[in-house]
């Protein structure tokens, strides 16, 4: 049986579509996937705004001041990114996040880049792509000055306060099951619980604890360094190589030209003073 040319063309198209579908997608999807990844930076430029996830309650890294403005170390880095990519530090949309939902905000596309004091871990690296780090930290433990916790052994069968989804949560869950953990979503809740005596101590990044203890002199960071040294880095959606490359180049530039140190001097040095040196926290 002879087929006319129009039917042949139709049959060929159907066969091709079925073949692509069997491989997991349509012809349009196959064409769009690499383009979507390659056009991320261009899409941000066309939109004229970059959405960056930061904390709203974690001074001095990310917080909202009395006038409703975003402030902090991560915020300064975000403004530099917006200025370099879009020509103005004002072209950043700050998306407030909490520790427990940071990965979801990246995976769902709610943010383009995450800068919410995000510690780089192997588990998180399976879900997101990390850029080069800009800070280095370890865990610490803060407790009342009149009842200081100076050794992890003192926490046995005691209640330790942590934030859900943080490295402190993961570290104590894995390594110290003898410690009772009371977990909160927001930093303000966790620190208020410490003030209220709902736990004997609180564990978080040491950089944050030093800053908090300075503002709350009835407490001290009697354990300043536990667990492995870790890095804090920006993160983007898994597989978004174009945006990852751009963020990497931006962090490298900020380190080289001194803008990262300038951000430190503006936001962190007034908090730490001489107690902490920039090189102790800034990644090389």
UniProtKB/TrEMBL annotation:
Keywords: Signal, Transport. It holds the Pfam family SBP_bac_3. Residues 1-27 form the signal peptide. Residues 49-270 form the Solute-binding protein family 3/N-terminal domain. One of its GO terms (biological process) is amino acid transport. CDD domains: PBP2_Cysteine. Gene3D superfamilies: Periplasmic binding protein-like II. PANTHER family: ABC TRANSPORTER GLUTAMINE-BINDING PROTEIN GLNH, AMINO ACID ABC TRANSPORTER PERMEASE. Belongs to the bacterial solute-binding protein 3 family. This is Cysteine ABC transporter substrate-binding protein. The lineage of its organism: Bacteria, Pseudomonadati, Pseudomonadota, Betaproteobacteria, Neisseriales.
């Amino acid at each position: 049986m002879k087929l006319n040319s129009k039917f042949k063309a139709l049959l060929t198209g159907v066969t091709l579509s079925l073949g692509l579908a069997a491989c997991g997608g349509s012809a349009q999807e196959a064409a769009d996937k690499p383009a979507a990844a390659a056009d991320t930076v261009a899409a941000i430029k066309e939109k004229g705004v970059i959405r960056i996830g930061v904390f709203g309650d974690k001074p001095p890294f990310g917080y909202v001041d009395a006038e409703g403005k975003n402030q902090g170390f991560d915020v300064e880095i975000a403004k530099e990114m917006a200025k370099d990519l879009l020509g103005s530090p004002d072209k950043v949309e700050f998306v407030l996040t909490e520790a427990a939902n940071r990965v979801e905000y990246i995976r769902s596309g709610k943010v383009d880049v995450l800068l919410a004091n995000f510690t780089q871990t192997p588990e998180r690296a399976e879900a997101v792509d990390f850029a080069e780090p800009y800070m280095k930290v370890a865990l610490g433990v803060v407790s009342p000055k009149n009842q200081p916790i100076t050794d992890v052994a003192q926490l046995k069968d005691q209640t330790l306060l942590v934030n859900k989804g943080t490295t402190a949560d993961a570290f104590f869950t894995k390594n110290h099951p003898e410690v009772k953990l009371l977990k909160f979503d927001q930093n303000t809740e966790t620190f208020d619980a410490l003030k209220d005596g709902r736990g004997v101590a609180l564990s978080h990044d040491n950089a944050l604890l030093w800053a908090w203890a300075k503002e709350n002199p009835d407490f001290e960071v009697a354990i300043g360094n536990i667990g492995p040294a870790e890095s804090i880095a920006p993160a983007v959606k898994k597989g978004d190589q174009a945006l990852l490359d751009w963020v990497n180049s931006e962090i490298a530039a900020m380190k080289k030209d001194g803008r990262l140190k300038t951000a430190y001097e503006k936001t962190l040095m007034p908090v730490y003073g001489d107690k902490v040196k920039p090189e102790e926290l800034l990644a090389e």
